[in-house]
Structure formats: structure tokens, C-alpha cells
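Researcher: I've got a protein sequence and the SMILES for magnesium ion. Could you write out the 3D structure of the bound complex as C-alpha cells? I'd like something to compare against our soaking experiments later this week.
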Amino acid sequence: MAPDRVTTLPTARAAGLSYRKVTKRFGAVTAVDDVSFDVPEGQILGIIGRSGAGKSTLLRLTNRLADPSGGHIVFGGVDVGSLRGKGLLAWRARCAMIFQQFNLVPRLDVVSNVLHGTLNRRSTLATTFNLFPRADIYRAIDILERLGIADQAAKRAEDLSGGQQQRVAIARALMQDPAFILADEPIASLDPMNAQVVMDTLRRINEEDGRTVVCNLHTLDTARRYCDRVIGMCEGRVVFDGAPELLTTAQAREIYGADEDFSEHATSTSIEKLETPMLRTLRSAEAAV
Ligand SMILES: Nc1ncnc2c1ncn2[C@@H]1O[C@H](COP(=O)(O)OP(=O)(O)OP(=O)(O)O)[C@@H](O)[C@H]1O
Ligand SMILES: [Mg+2]
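Model: Sure. Here is the predicted complex with magnesium ion in place.
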């Protein structure tokens, strides 16, 4: 059944998100194929699948960077596809995106990058002259402090490590006070240590603020470790939807289109293994004294 064609969003920050028979075609390619599922508020949901499975397209449809060829995405009873103008801007502010490549302005300082999270509610004149209200500047610094990078506030974004830059991108997203964080492979460019810090940050935001996190991940071990629920996509379709502990090796094989030799290690980011060398170093240091 089609949702109401209401053009204003509910005022409550939290509400569930529903995908109803969502399809996206690019010519002969069906990137997202008849996808239906619900995301309850406050969930941390991992979407896994091999390259080309449709993960990014699904996130882009969600915040209306692209429109579906068929079906509906519904938030609090409103078909987000029906939103235009201010309603659409409000929707985009509700579902902040985080990308693999951070999408910061490299030569701009960290605080200004974070303040860019408020751009969609500021006048063109204020934006042109980079004029930010004092209250927003304090809030940006508070958020940076919360994410443990306030000491980097005056540096250029390009001078930070990958993990710090991704935390700046998360801080920019938080400036929008979003109901959802849509994260597209947020740790794919990071080493295991930084990957862990970024995923811990997303989980904190989920647990402490109750914000829903939808996170595309290449790797199974990260999904198992951080997500309440995993959706497995293959060729645009949902082939698994459930708690991570219910995902069997056979199902993982189907998601990744792999053969009998498939091993979860092939999709590992080594986050789990991070502790092992550290512990080993600690143990040998202890043995030496
Ligand atoms: N703008 C576009 N124009 C044409 N085809 C597209 C476009 N965007 C995505 N596709 C195609 O849709 C399919 C799904 O792409 P998508 O980027 O959603 O996959 P993905 O699961 O995010 O992959 P990856 O893990 O490599 O990021 C692919 O076959 C891709 O080539
Ligand atoms: Mg992608």
C-alpha cells in the first residue's frame, strides 16, 4: 500500500524507517531490486555484500541523492520521495551521510569543516562570508571534545590522520542533530586501529544518543562485532536479514557469491586481531622486567 503523500516530516526526531519494494535501475543494471525491510529507531544496522551489491545505492536513495525507479522509503508515515524544497532539506538534515573518503574540505580548518554541518539552515550571504553564529562554534567544539579531537580544532583537515578525519566527518554529521547516520564504508580507508576508533565512535553515538546508524561494511567481522542486525545484499536483493550470530558460513558464502573455499578471514578488517599483537608486546614487556 502506498504511504500518504504528506509533504512534511513528523516533528519527533525518532521514528522508524521502512523500505517498501524499493528498486533502482541504471539502464540494464538493477542496482537495488525489490528491497523491503524496516529499520526501527535506535538500531545499529550493518549492510554487507560484495562490490556492486547495491549497498551505496540504497544509502543514496535513503537520503535522496538518487530517486528510486520503484517503491517507497517511508519515515514516520511520510514517503520521503514526496519531499521537495524545505521538506527535502529537512529530510537530508535528519539523515546525515558519512563517506569512505571523509568528504571534508582539506585546506579548511577542522572547526569550519564541522560547522559546515549547519549549512543547510544558513543564508547564502552568511555562507559566502563564512559567518557562523557563536553558539554554533561552541557546539562544534563541544562535539569535537566529545569525540576526543578538540585539540585538533585549529588544524587543517588535510593534516589529520584518516581516523581523525573520519571523526571530524562524524562531528560534522552530529552538527545536523540527525535521527540517522548513514555511513557508507566509513572504515574502508583506515588501518585497523583507526577503524576500531571510528566504529567505537559510531556505536557510542548510537548507544548514548539513540541515533539510528545504518552502516555499509565490506567486512563480516566488523558487522558481527558492532551491529545489532545485519542485512546481506547480493545483486541488489536482500539475501539475509537477522542478528549477526544467526549468519552462517553458508549464508555468508551466498552474500559474497563465494565458493566452498570461502573463509570469513577473507573479509576481515583485522579489528579483532588488533588486540593480539598488542597483548603479545605487553606480555613480552612484562616478561622482561
Ligand atoms: N550512477 C550510476 N550509474 C550507473 N550504474 C550505477 C550507478 N551507481 C551504481 N551503479 C551500478 O549499480 C550497481 C550497484 O552499485 P553500488 O555502488 O550501489 O554497489 P556497492 O554495493 O556500494 O559496491 P561497493 O562495495 O563497490 O561500494 C553496480 O553494478 C554499479 O555499477
Ligand atoms: Mg559502495
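Model: The chain has a mean pLDDT of 85. The pocket of magnesium ion (ligand 2) is lined by residues 55-56, 184-185 (CB under 6 Å).
Researcher: Great, I'll pass this along to the crystallography team.
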